[in-house]
Amino acid sequence: MLSSEFFAPTSKEVPSEAKMISHQLMLRAGMISQSASGIYCWLPLSVRVMNKITNIVCEEQDRIGANRVYFSTIQPADLWIESGRYEAYGKEMLRIKDRKDNNFLYSPTNEEQATDVFRKYVKSYRQLPLLFYQIHWKFRDEIRPRFGVMRGREFFMKDGYSFDMNFEGAQTTYRKVFKSYMKIFRRIGLTPVPVQADPGAIGGNMSHEFQILAETGESTLYYDKKLLSSTDDKPSSIFAVTDEKYDPKASPIPETELAISKGIEVGHIFYFGTKYSRPMNAFVLDENGGKVFPEMGSYGIGISRLVAAIIEASHDERGIIWPEAVSPFGITILNLHTKNEKCREIASQIYESLLSTKEVLYDDRSISVGEKLADADLIGIPYQIIIGTKKAEIGIVEFKNRKTGEIVEMSIDKAIGRFQ
Ligand code: P5A
């Protein structure tokens, strides 16, 4: 991709409305454009990041046998009246009427709809366990949308829904998803802290949050230091709790192992038994022809919040530092002197050679050297190949690691070879 054709409206100004660093950087890097309070347009850089996250999520969810679907974003209110949540959900739900005066709503979550699809098609114990997931837009009319996409009203979520014959089956599925989530966050380049949580409005009796440590997080975590180095991915064998529940006397965390940090909730999973299957009369027949209401769970990842959380966890004073796994491009080529023929020739040669193996952003714009370098650091692609006049004459380019800031001079062939 050529920067001259790529839409990333970067800016030096720190937007005054943005308090959180990820919000500032997303605006400055031209990743999002606010449409209304808590509602954003997602511009090309952030779309590329969300696609990377989506691909990792899908790979890991497919691996555990989850079925990807798109539930509709607009749902009939009747489904929620059946489950008993239509009134209870309150003002966070965006309610809509169609031209015939029928009541609809924009999905804040899809437990009812997953249960509805299930009851239409699944009749026998032989079809269980069953796991659906989607990656789709949600709307919650939050009282206080804030920190940009961190707490939006419209946001992008991965949501999954499971159906099992009994409690043991549901526990097995819950653990499978838990493990898959740990893998997803680690593949993205983050260190997830699983926390036993209060299930809140989704309801039920077992729940974990997945938190990412960041100074700017909204939750306070009390956790066992061992969690951070642990590769254990079973629910809560090492402990973390959130602030309102922390009681040092009751805490299983030994005092010497206790760490306290702020965290950002990027995922949340729930087991809630027959809370939806029973009132919605979703059942299957067991071996003996008996009616069984499946035991359910739901599993969320805030995909759009993750974009901001990754930035909170990985940036410096110059801008974003993308973990390689989710970077919008693998590498960027900075041609500092676009009018110089030698520079153009080298930049094009490197660009053409790398295109087949890497996603490359070639900054071919005629802007000042300072602006070009600043934009590259702001956008945060992990590797930069910098081409300047003097070194270009002798066939040398600079190779910069965005994270460490280290710059190494190398031949054109070596620079290309590093990525092929
Ligand atoms: C689980 C999947 C649910 O909605 N139903 C389907 C369950 N859980 S949740 O905790 O309410 O949300 C899941 C994750 O979505 C992100 N999230 C948000 N992101 C941005 N703005 C918001 N307003 C917002 N609300 C929730 C969080 O990452 C949360 O863990």
Overview of the structural elements:
By secondary structure, the protein is an alpha+beta fold. It folds into two domains: 21-316, BirA Bifunctional Protein, domain 2 (2-Layer Sandwich); 329-417, Rossmann fold. Helix content is 28%, strand content 29%. Strands 3, 7, 8, 9, 10, 11, 12, 13 and 16 form a nine-stranded mixed sheet that branches. A five-stranded mixed sheet has the order 20-19-21-22-23, sandwiched between helices. Strands 4-6-5 form a three-stranded antiparallel sheet. Helix 8 links the parallel strand 19 and strand 20 (360-363). The mean pLDDT is 93.
Share of residues in strands? 25-35%
State the domain count: 2
Number of strands: 23
Form type: elongated
Identify low-pLDDT runs: none
Largest sheet: 9 strands, mixed
Bound molecules: '5'-O-(N-(L-prolyl)-sulfamoyl)adenosine
CATH homologous superfamily identity of the largest domain: Bira Bifunctional Protein, Domain 2
* CATH level-3 fold name of the largest domain: BirA Bifunctional Protein, domain 2
Distance between the termini: 17 Å
What is the architecture of the largest domain at the second tier of CATH?
2-Layer Sandwich
Rg: 24 Å
Helix/strand/pairing category: alpha+beta
What portion of residues is helical?
25-40%
> What is the count of DSSP helices, taking H or I runs of 4+ residues?
11
CATH class of the largest domain: Alpha Beta
What is the mean predicted local confidence, pLDDT? 93
Kindly report the oligomeric state of this protein.
single chain
